[in-house]
Amino acid sequence: MSANGSPMGQQPTATYDSAFLKACRREPVPHTPVWFMRQAGRSLPEYRKVREGIPMLESCMRPDLVTEITLQPVRRHHVDAAIYFSDIVVPLKAIGVDLDIKPGVGPVVERPIRSRADLAQLRDLTPEDVSYVTEAIGLLTAELGETPLIGFAGAPFTLASYLVEGGPSRTYENAKAMMYGDPELWADLLDRLADITAAFLKVQIEAGASAVQLFDSWAGALAPADYRRSVLPASSKVFRAVEAYGVPRIHFGVGTGELLGLMGEAGADVVGVDWRVPLDEAARRVGPGKALQGNLDPTVLFAPQEAVETKTREVLDAAANLEGHVFNLGHGVMPSTDPDALTRLVEYVHTRTTR
Question: Is cis: bond before 4, omega within 30 of 0?
Answer without folding.
Answer: no
